[in-house]
Amino acid sequence: MLAIVADQNLPLVRRLEAVGFRAWPTSSVQYDGSWQIRLSGGHPSKRLNCVVALDPSDSKDISLRLEKAGRKFEAHGRPLLVRETPLSPKALIEELKNDGWERFDETMTLTGDLSTLTLPDMLDHLPTHDIGRFVDADLAVHASDPSLKPALAEVISAIKPPTGLFLIEDPDSGPVASTLCVQDNDLAGIMSLAVRSGRRREGLGLEILTSALRWARVRGAKTAWLQVAADNTAALQLYGKLGFQVAYRYRYWRKGT
């Protein structure tokens, strides 16, 4: 079972949010006080296109600030989304509730001590340096729209910290699993881990995750972090067995229709 942190460690949340922004960078970042307005003209990822408040005390003029942010999202052809984390002001969340917004897509951020994580003895995979090859594989494994290739390549190319691009490929059917590991000083983030539909429950996810974590540990990372949908029971059980713990949860809000 995953251990759940009862009292939010806000300094840890702030640090993980910061490395998360660097691990999945958007093309446009603007600030309204401590509210970060993240927008991408190419990729539709919610993390790249949302408003994130980074100070629980920054709660002035909420309605006006949401209205201003909405105009920026409209100019980009994006729906206005607010990402709620433990750093979000309570007044902001109350405003969203009272104004008929709906909450969706809860995600857990997990951390694990790389010195104590239980990594099984499995086939090791070395990272590729070919971004184009990795992007093609990632889109295939996720069954994503191939037209997203330029936007995804732009996101990955914009990652500044050292990054390992990991693939497992079948000689006959092509890529079957993919992930990328972003090492930001002593923290290693596992991003976009997926196994192709029809090849799940074969241990491929554990195999590629283990390869990425070993790569990060050899390079000096001390703590691994990753994000997983709160309703992904199988993944949560796997990460719990390895030794990951819940650091915090986040979720999105959108204007009700």
From TrEMBL:
InterPro entries per the UniProt record, alphabetical: Acyl_CoA_acyltransferase (IPR016181), Bact_Acetyltransf (IPR050832), GNAT_dom (IPR000182), Rv0428c-like_C (IPR056935)
Tree of life domain: Bacteria
N-acetyltransferase domain boundaries: 121-257
Keywords: Acyltransferase, Transferase
PROSITE patterns: GNAT
Official protein name in the record: GNAT family N-acetyltransferase
